[in-house]
Amino acid sequence: PFFWTDQYGKRVQLVGSPSLSDDFCVVEGSFAQGRMIAEYRRHGSISGMVLVNAPDRLATARAALASSSVVA
Questions:
Q1: Mind listing the pLDDT tens digit for each residue in 29-43?
Q2: In a domain, 72, yes or no
Q3: Which of 4, 18, 31, 61 could form a disulfide with 40 if both were Cys (CB 3.0 to 4.6 A apart)?
Q4: Full-model pTM
């Protein structure tokens, strides 16, 4: 799954299924800084990612999600 929205000058993109997660971790930046990349994880594997003002990292996020072995 994938969605994006532009809200108040920020582009928010989400890939994967965050509802499957049991952990959330910001891996780069912060929302307050205006650019952020975060991972949703389940049992240590990526189940979803959210990107804020980081469209240049979308392909990388999709690849990371595809290579992760998440069992629903």
A1: 999 999 999 999 999
A2: no
A3: 18
A4: 0.86
In a domain, 10, yes or no: yes
Domain boundaries, position 33: 2-67
Q: Is 50 exposed, middle or buried (0-12, 13-18, 19+ CB in 10 A)?
A: buried
Q: By C-alpha distance, which of 68, 22, 28 is closest to 50?
A: 28
Total residue count of the chain as it appears in this document: 72
14 domain-assigned: yes
- Model confidence pLDDT, tens digit, residues 8-63: 999 999 999 999 899 999 999 999 999 999 999 999 899 999 999 999 999 999 99
